[in-house]
Amino acid sequence: MDRLCARRLAGVMSELPILVTGATGKSGRRVVSQLRAKGLPVRAAARHGEYIFDWTDSGTWDAALEGVRSIYIVQLDGTKLVRPFIERAAQHGVRRIVLASGRGIDDPHYAKDSSGVFEGIVDSEAAVRGSGLEWTISRPGWFAQNFSEGFFADAIHTGELRLPAGDGAASFVDAEDIAAVVVAALTEDQHAGQIYELSGPRAVTLTEAVATISEATGRDIRYVPLSVEGYVAELVQQGLPRTDAEAFADVIEPLREGRDEYVSDGVQRALGRPPRTFVEFAKSTAAAGGWPA
User: Fold this and answer.
1) Which CATH number is 3-286's, of 3.40.50.300, 3.40.190.10, 3.30.930.10, 3.40.50.720?
2) Are strands 169-170 and 204-205 parallel, antiparallel or unpaired?
């Protein structure tokens, strides 16, 4: 292909919409925002979003894929729907896919998988790599935003985070960095075939994380370590079925065991800069009113 044809193709590609599934989620909505900030056309797809898309209703897939050049895939946990979706995408002429995966996927001892989440993601990664399309895989660790809009948010709001995590630490990654890596992979050519493990610049214990948020907000927040049995009992007392309570405890196990302490170079490799620190996350979130007084 000569340079003129290449430039024309690049121009056509830049005019075609980028499909973002899970567009109302922590990473998806940031990807949408960052793409639009670049002036790029985006199809923000979710069950209750701008563009209706439901993983469990394949009848919504074709309209979402029509005319799309690239896709950010945020899969539905515990399913193996990415494989048929990619096959459908290829039929529509999609050229590039970026898959949201997770750290520890290639470690069979990382966490218990009673709900089939890991099994589904492993299948999705295999489907992406074997698709024949340009692909990139994002493997973020624990989101820093779990403290502001996710798993730990309600506890932070009440001032007491009670978890069976002991003194374990994690290299929490800012979702803004995750989105920036995804946007780069969707819009730049050099990321094809890359697997980016994403983390913050250093591991942070829950005690340190809560202290950092306390300083940023001026509020008194504390972390209370619980035993697994005590944690499950508390959730059951609050009305959660025991099986669900035990599943939540399983999610915390890698944190308790320090399996997510290690620092990855994915942000640096993809963006040419270091990841944001947990302190930067806490200060910016507090300044934006992420933790109401």
Assistant:
1) 3.40.50.720
2) antiparallel
